[in-house]
Design a protein that fits this description.
With 683 residues, this protein is mostly beta strands. It has five helices and 49 strands. 54% of the residues are buried. Residues 601-612 have a biased composition (Low complexity).
C-alpha cells in the first residue's frame, strides 16, 4: 500500500500544472450584509477555526483558509492532528484540510491566475516541536515531511485541497512573498533552520521567482546579508516604478529584480518594524488624487539594536514603540514621522477598510514576537500586556488627528504571537489565532492556544449598503470604461452624493506575523451622471495601464457612497494568466454631470475627473460636453455608421456644440439616449 508521502507525490505530479490554469469568476450584483444589527465598533465571537490561525487568507467571498504549524490540535484529518482548515464566513464553521508538510512560519501570496502559493516552513517535528527522526516521512504522530511549496485553488464546494509541488531550491523559514506585475511571485529571504532571530550560519540572503524563469536560481541580496539578525520576514512592496521596496532590520533598499540590482536608501528611523519586533505595516490607498503614488505606513515594533536580540534578558517586559513613520519611495528616500500610536504595540495588524481607513488591532504593549523556555517568558511568550483596544487611522485626516477610537470597544481575547486578521467582503474583519507556544497548550497559561474566531464590525457595517448594478467580473489594465448604476436609495436619497462616490479595488492579502502580504487598495478613476430622479451612474475606468500599481490576480471590488461600502464582489485583475499583462490606454471618461430636476439645471465636472470635483458649467453646456464625450467613446462600437451611411465624428461633435444652450430638453433626450445606448453596447 502506498505511503501518504507517495500518494501526495502522485497527486502533486498530476495536478500541479492544472493548478496554474486561469480562474474565472461569475459575477453577481451585491446585496446587503447578512445582518444590520451587528455590534458596531465591537468584536463578536462567532466560531471555531479548528486549527490556530498562524496564517490566513480570504480565498473566495465565503471561504477563509487557515494554516497553522504542525502541532497537537484536537481536530483531526487523515488520522493525524490537522494544521490547516477552511472556514466558511456564512456558516461560521470549518473543515480540516491536509497540508502535509510543516508550514511553521511559511509565507504566502496569490499568483496572477488566482492560485495561492504557500512556501517554506520548518523541518519535520514531533510532539513539542522536537525534530523528527525522519525528515522524509516525519514520523508519528504528525507524519509531517520536511517543508516545501504547496498550491491551492480556493473553492466553495468543500472539495479543494492543498497540493504539494516540487521541493524548494533552498530552505526558507520566515520568507516573504510578493506578487509581481506579471502574476508570478518573488520569494525573498528566510533562514534554514529557524530560531528567535537569524544568524550568519543559517542565513538565506537570496531571492527567487515562482514559477521559475529561465532556470534562474536564487539571487544573492545585499540587504539580507547586511541586516542580521532581525532580517526574517523582510517587509516588501511592489512599487509603481516596478522596483521592490525591501525593509529589513534598520536597512532599506530598492530592488530592481530584472536587473538584479539593489539601491540602498535611508535607514528606518525610531524602531525596527520587521519580525520579531513586528510593527504593523500597510501601503496607503492608491488614488487618482495622489497620482497613484505609493506611500507605506510603519507603526510600532521596538527600538532594539542588533546586539540586543538575545534571550538572556526579560524581553517580554520591554516596551513596544509608539512610533509611526511613512515612506514614499518613488518620490523621496526619507522616512517621515507620522502620528504616533496611542500606546506602544508589537504584533499589531493594519487592515485596509474599503472606506480608505486602516484598522489597527491585535498585539502586545510589551515584548516581541516569539516564544521559548526561558524563565522570564510569560508561559512561553516573549510578549506580555495584550493590547485589546483597536484604533483606526485615517490617512485623509490632518496630521495630529489621524488616529481615533471613537465608538470602539476592546476585544476580550488576547491576540499575541501567531494571530492574524483579514477583511471580509461585507466589510467586517475576521480575527483569529494566537499561540505563543511550541505546541498546543490551553491549560494553566496566560496566553493559551486560541481557536476562537471573532468578527469586528466597523462604523459603516449596519448602514444601508449601495447595491450597484453593472460591476464587471474582470478588470483590465486600460481600455473602455464601464458604467455602474446606483439607485436613489443607493445614493442615500441625495443625488449629490454621487459626486463623492468611488469604486475601489482591494486585495486582502496573506496574513501572518503582523503582515498581510500583498494587501493593497486602489481607487479607480471615475466620473458620474446624476439623474433628475435621484439615481445616478458612475463611469469607471479600468485599472491604470501599469500592472506594477496593482499586481494581477483576484481582488474585491467595492462601490463606496458617503463612506459606506457596498458588499465586495470578487473580480480578476488582469488577464487571469501568469504572463506579461496586456496594457492599453484608458478611454477618456465622460464629463461629470448632475441634473437638477427641480430647476432644469445641471452641474458638470471634468472628463478626466476622479468623481470628487464639480466645476459648475451651464446646464445645457454641461450636458452638451457630456454628449460630445459619449460620441467620442461610442464611435468605435457604432462602427462610424448611422443607417449604413458613413459619418465623420467631427460632424456630430459640431452638431452638439452648435445647439443653443436653451435647447436643454433636446440635449437631455439625446444624452439619455446615448447613455442607454452606451450601456447596451458595453454589456
Amino acid at each position: 500500500m502506498p505511503t501518504r508521502r507517495q500518494r501526495q507525490s502522485v497527486r502533486r505530479t498530476a495536478t500541479a500544472l492544472s493548478l496554474l490554469a486561469a480562474t474565472a469568476y461569475a459575477q453577481q450584483n451585491p446585496g446587503q450584509p447578512p445582518r444590520n444589527d451587528a455590534p458596531i465598533g465591537q468584536f463578536e465571537i462567532v466560531g471555531n477555526s479548528l486549527v490556530s490561525a498562524q496564517q490566513m487568507f480570504l480565498g473566495t467571498p465565503d471561504k477563509v483558509y487557515i494554516i497553522d504549524k504542525t502541532e497537537a490540535n484536537p481536530a483531526k484529518v487523515n488520522n493525524h492532528p490537522a494544521w490547516a482548515a477552511e472556514f466558511s464566513v456564512s456558516k461560521k464553521a470549518g473543515r480540516t484540510m491536509d497540508i502535509v508538510t510543516n508550514t511553521f512560519c511559511a509565507g504566502g501570496n496569490v499568483l496572477g491566475n488566482g492560485t495561492w502559493l504557500n512556501v517554506g516552513g520548518n523541518m519535520a517535528v514531533t510532539t513539542g516541536g522536537a525534530t523528527a527522526d525522519s525528515q522524509v516521512t516525519g514520523g508519528q504522530p504528525y507524519e509531517d515531511p520536511d517543508g516545501g511549496q504547496s498550491l491551492l485553488n480556493p473553492c466553495d464546494d468543500g472539495n479543494c485541497e492543498w497540493t504539494l509541488i516540487q521541493q524548494m531550491s533552498t530552505r526558507r523559514w520566515y520568507p516573504t512573498l510578493e506578487t509581481l506585475e506579471d502574476g508570478s511571485i518573488i520569494i525573498i529571504g528566510g533562514c534554514k533552520w529557524g530560531g528567535f532571530v537569524n544568524d550568519a550560519n543559517q542565513n538565506n540572503p537570496t531571492w527567487e521567482i515562482f514559477p521559475p524563469k529561465d532556470n534562474d536560481g536564487p539571487v544573492e541580496s545585499d540587504i539580507l546579508t547586511n541586516s542580521l539578525p532581525a532580517n526574517l520576514y523582510p517587509l516588501t512592496w511592489l512599487l509603481p516604478s516596478g522596483k521592490i521596496l525591501i525593509q529589513s532590520n534598520w536597512k532599506t533598499t530598492l530592488l530592481d529584480y530584472k536587473a538584479k540590482k539593489e539601491t540602498p536608501i535611508n535607514d528606518m528611523i525610531e524602531a525596527v518594524r520587521v519580525y520579531p519586533a513586528s510593527g504593523g505595516t500597510a501601503m496607503l490607498p492608491l488614488t487618482p488624487a495622489n497620482g497613484y503614488t505609493a506611500t507605506i505606513l510603519f507603526c510600532g515594533g521596538n527600538d532594539l539594536q542588533p546586539d540586543r536580540w538575545t534571550t538572556d534578558w526579560d524581553i517580554a517586559q520591554y516596551k513596544a514603540s509608539t512610533s509611526c513613520v511613512n515612506l514614499t519611495p518613488d518620490v523621496s528616500t526619507t522616512y517621515v514621522k507620522d502620528d504616533p500610536l496611542p500606546e506602544g504595540r508589537s504584533m499589531g495588524n493594519l487592515i485596509m477598510l474599503p472606506n480608505g481607513k486602516i484598522l489597527c488591532l491585535n498585539g502586545a504593549e510589551t515584548g516581541t514576537a516569539g516564544y521559548g523556555p526561558q524563565d522570564w517568558a510569560v508561559g512561553e511568550s516573549y510578549a506580555d500586556n495584550a493590547v485589546l483596544m483597536p484604533v483606526v487611522y485615517d490617512p485623509s485626516a490632518p496630521q495630529g488627528s489621524r488616529w481615533s477610537r471613537d465608538g470602539l470597544s476592546p476585544s476580550t481575547i488576547a491576540r499575541m504571537y501567531h494571530s492574524g486578521a483579514t477583511l471580509l467582503p461585507d466589510g467586517s474583519v475576521l480575527v483569529s489565532g494566537s499561540n505563543p507556544h511550541a505546541d498546543y497548550v490551553v491549560d494553566g497559561v496566560k496566553f493559551p492556544t486560541e481557536y476562537r474566531v471573532e468578527y469586528f464590525y466597523p462604523s459603516y457595517y449596519n448602514e444601508r449598503r449601495p447595491q450597484p448594478q453593472g460591476l464587471p467580473d474582470q478588470l483590465k489594465y486600460g481600455g473602455p470604461y464601464f458604467n455602474v448604476t446606483l439607485t436613489k436609495d443607493d445614493l442615500g436619497g441625495d443625488v449629490n452624493n454621487i459626486k463623492e462616490a468611488s469604486v475601489v479595488v482591494l486585495r486582502t492579502g496573506f496574513s501572518t506575523h503582523t503582515m498581510n502580504m500583498g494587501q493593497r487598495m486602489l481607487q479607480l478613476n471615475s466620473t458620474y451622471t446624476g439623474n433628475a430622479d435621484g439615481s445616478g451612474m458612475l463611469h469607471v475606468s479600468q485599472m491604470p495601464p501599469n500592472p506594477s500599481l496593482f499586481a494581477p490576480g483576484p481582488a474585491l471590488l467595492f462601490v463606496v457612497v458617503n463612506g459606506v461600502p457596498s458588499v465586495g464582489v470578487q473580480v480578476m485583475v488582469g488577464s487571469g494568466q501568469i504572463e506579461e499583462q496586456p496594457t492599453t490606454q484608458n478611454v477618456e471618461l465622460p464629463a461629470a454631470t448632475v441634473i437638477d430636476g427641480g430647476n432644469n439645471g445641471a452641474s458638470s465636472g471634468s472628463a478626466a475627473g476622479n468623481g470628487n470635483e464639480s466645476h459648475g458649467t451651464s446646464a445645457a453646456g454641461g450636458v452638451r460636453d457630456s454628449l460630445n464625450a459619449y460620441t467620442v467613446h461610442l464611435w468605435p462600437a457604432l462602427g462610424q455608421r448611422v443607417g449604413g451611411i458613413p459619418i465623420e465624428r467631427a460632424d456630430i461633435s459640431d452638431h452638439w456644440h452648435a445647439l443653443d444652450n436653451t435647447d436643454f430638453e433636446l440635449h437631455r433626450t439625446l444624452h439619455d439616449f446615448l447613455l442607454r445606448l452606451h450601456y447596451l453596447i458595453r454589456t
